[in-house]
TrEMBL record:
The gene is UEVLD. GO terms for cellular component: ESCRT I complex; nucleus. GO terms for biological process: endosome to lysosome transport; protein transport; regulation of DNA-templated transcription. PROSITE patterns: UEV. Residues 2-145 form the UEV domain. GO terms for molecular function: oxidoreductase activity; ubiquitin binding. This is Ubiquitin-conjugating enzyme E2 variant 3 isoform X6. It comes from the Eukaryota. The lineage of its organism: Eukaryota, Metazoa, Chordata, Craniata, Vertebrata.
């Protein structure tokens, strides 16, 4: 919805510091009037849920002489402004996430500004300005080739299910543990998509054994990227007999 102070005030009826939050969002709207606001359900890592205000839009990032409009989504906690927002990239189907020191495989954004958040010194506009500055050093998204776009749609949907705790794999995993069987998951395909999916599954802890089956020409880059994260119970397999790799 468009920014509307009274409308937001009604939506934030359960927020502890509603008036402070609305006043701050007025300031955000002055700098970024194109943001769109809504109330949606946010699922936390412990599977608890809350209806939270969030807003989406793009921020301009200058990188190597070109300006990129980076799509983001910020969730405002009901204890705002005394707790920092939860920040994510919001890539489209033709965008891939560049995992780095400020962004994880699910697109969650990590910044010093968030870690050091302290009201009243810390404000959302200041957070977004630091976000822009960090993204100018390391662009968080890249364009996918047309052949990767269909895979990215499935990947984004799959990662969303994993991070929200509603994956069918998650429920099967508990059944496997009860039966004392080993739950093995094989990710087929290397490159950025393979890494992103591997990181998402590993973070959820739903597999006893996780195999990245790399069918690309070389594995060196993939191995180096995954080594950065020091993932337990993850192995990389190069090509070979696809059927035996998946059934083994």
């Amino acid at each position: 919805m468009e920014f509307n102070s009274e409308g937001l005030r009604r939506l934030l009826g359960k927020y502890k510091f509603r008036d402070l939050t609305v006043e701050e969002l007025k300031n955000v709207n002055m700098f970024f009037p194109h943001f769109r606001y809504s109330m949606d359900t946010y699922v936390f890592k412990d599977s608890s849920q809350k209806n939270l205000l969030n807003f989406t839009g793009t921020i301009p990032v200058m990188y190597q002489g070109n300006t990129y409009n980076i799509p983001i989504r910020l969730w405002i906690l009901d204890s705002h402004p005394f707790a920092p927002p939860i920040c994510f990239l919001k890539p489209t189907a033709n965008m891939g996430i560049s995992v780095g020191k400020h962004v994880d495989a699910q697109g969650r954004i990590y910044l010093p500004y968030l870690q050091n958040w302290s009201h009243p010194k810390s404000v959302i506009v200041g957070l977004i300005k630091e976000m822009i500055a960090k993204f100018q050093e390391e662009l968080p998204l890249y364009s996918l080739s047309s052949s990767d776009e269909a895979q990215q749609v499935d990947l984004l949907a799959y990662i969303a299910k994993i991070t929200e705790g509603v994956s069918d794999i998650n429920s099967k995993n508990w059944a496997n543990h009860e039966n004392k069987t080993v739950n093995k998951i094989t990710v087929v395909g290397g490159g950025e998509l393979g890494i992103a999916c591997t990181l998402a599954i590993s973070a959820k802890g739903i597999a006893d054994r996780l195999v990245l089956l790399d069918l690309s020409e070389g594995t060196k880059g993939v191995i180096m990227d995954l080594d950065i994260f020091n993932l337990p119970n993850v192995e990389i397999s190069k090509g070979g007999d696809l059927h035996s790799q998946l059934s083994g």
